[in-house]
Write a structure and sequence with these properties.
Layout: H1 19-30, H2 32-38, H3 44-50, H4 55-83, H5 86-104, H6 109-137, H7 142-154, H8 156-168, H9 174-195, H10 210-221, H11 224-254, H12 259-283, H13 289-313, H14 316-343, H15 351-369, H16 372-376, H17 382-401
Helix pairs in contact: 1-7, 1-9, 2-8, 3-4, 4-5, 4-6, 4-15, 5-6, 5-9, 6-15, 7-12, 7-14, 8-12, 11-14, 11-15, 11-17, 12-14, 13-14, 13-17
Length: 406
């Protein structure tokens, strides 16, 4: 059965859409997060030097973006349940384009933090609505397959983004990276205007206000099946952001990798994550998603243990790269599977709110993890490895204690 045939479209409003094109656009929109985060990673040391700051302070620009994404999802998810998906999506992508351009002209780290916060808020709207649209159109095991398909499309972003960022740094400054993000936003906006129709008809929308949204969130927080998947995903996501925030300094300053070498290592790890997500997508329907998540967590724990051992006994850059690659392969099974487990049991009318809360838990925990490596210390790979191992272990405990309901 093909992805497009996994389940019939539920709304006549979207029956005329070419679903293959729609999935490509949704995948590109879900790449807003990786583009915003990964493309400027090779420039973090350069930003630290030019704006006369410290690694921990510059890492707060990543934290601000993640907090913004969380806030944007909290707002846009419930709004899309009431107003529909298309208009909030257009507003979010247009605002993201402008905020990216503002980042390019930031005169200091505090100002850059504010603009990154704004960029995250508006980009978060796109991320949450993408998941809500998938829930509008698909159900059951098909959701896991669609998430894996979207990760295949959007998975190119973390592979290509740091490489593109490193190449841009060859002839421009870090400010040019944000100009490129703004141009990418223009392309995404054109794609949304031309290729995304409304997937939540007016007669299926929620009519409640803020009180209703609070009640829905409270309902979801008490839903063990939702929270098991959401917390497992959030803690695994946080481990990945410990790597994302710490690796530019560890690989480039401790192990003396060039920006180009760093981007290739980062791309290799993103490739491992993307390929394993496709393996999980192929197995969905034949292997229970919870079993795939359990395997992914075991792989991640093994990789984190290898990473910490490599850092402590001095195995060099090769040992660090192998450990990171194994971790990312495990994440490729964990992230799509936990997202599918969290959303599969939720009705279409609250898909936006459920997607928002899922995203908030992921990005809020990621925001907390992002500065940890810099605060503990960036003089070796041990802090980064320790943070990642601890968070993956917490993710596994969450899955065993809460998520076993599925």
């Amino acid at each position: 059965m093909s992805v497009a045939e996994a389940t019939p479209l539920t709304s006549p409003v979207v029956k005329g859409n070419r679903r293959g094109l729609l999935l490509i656009i949704l995948g590109a929109l879900s790449a807003i997060g990786p583009l915003s985060i990964d493309m400027y990673l090779p420039a973090l040391p350069a930003i630290t030097g030019e704006l006369v700051s410290t690694p921990a302070q510059v890492q707060l620009t990543l934290t601000a973006c993640l907090i913004g994404v969380s806030v944007g999802q909290v707002v846009a998810g419930p709004v899309s349940d009431v107003r529909g998906r298309r208009l909030p999506l257009i507003v979010g992508v247009a605002g993201y384009t402008l905020a990216s351009l503002l980042c390019a002209f930031a005169p200091s780290v505090p100002v850059l933090i504010v603009f990154r916060l704004l960029q995250g808020v508006l980009g978060g709207a796109a991320l949450v609505i993408v998941r809500a649209v998938v829930r509008d159109l698909y159900d059951g095991a098909a959701i896991a397959r669609i998430f894996a398909t979207l990760m295949l499309v959007s998975g190119l972003a973390p592979i290509l983004a740091p490489i593109a960022g490193a190449q841009l740094l060859g002839f421009t400054s870090w400010r040019g990276v944000f100009v490129a993000l703004s141009l990418a936003g223009i392309v995404l906006l054109a794609a949304v205007l031309g290729g995304v129709r409304e997937t939540l008809p007016a007669y299926e929308r929620e009519s409640g206000g803020l009180g209703h949204t609070v009640r829905v969130f409270w309902q979801l927080l008490r839903d063990r099946s939702f929270m098991g998947g959401a917390l497992t995903a959030g803690l695994a996501f946080a481990a990945m952001f410990g790597y994302i925030s710490g690796s530019p300094f560890v690989l480039q300053e401790v192990y003396h990798a060039t920006p180009q070498q760093y981007s290739l290592i980062f791309g290799l790890n993103a490739l491992g994550l993307t390929l394993m997500a496709q393996v999980g997508g192929r197995l969905s329907g034949r292997v229970p998603p919870a079993r795939l998540v359990a395997v992914g967590l075991c792989v991640g724990l093994a990789g984190a243990g290898l990473l910490l051992a490599a850092a402590m006994i001095g195995m060099g850059l090769a040992g660090i790269v192998v450990g990171l690659f194994v971790i990312m392969c495990g994440q490729g099974l964990v992230l799509p599977g936990t997202g599918a487990l969290a959303l599969a049991g939720q009705p279409q009318q609250i898909a936006g709110s459920a997607s928002a809360l899922l995203g908030v838990l992921q990005f809020a925990l990621g925001a907390l993890a992002a500065p940890l490596v810099g605060l503990v210390g960036s003089g070796s790979a041990v802090p980064m490895a320790s943070v990642m191992l601890g968070l993956i272990a917490c993710s596994a405990v969450s899955f065993l204690v809460i998520g076993r309901v599925r």
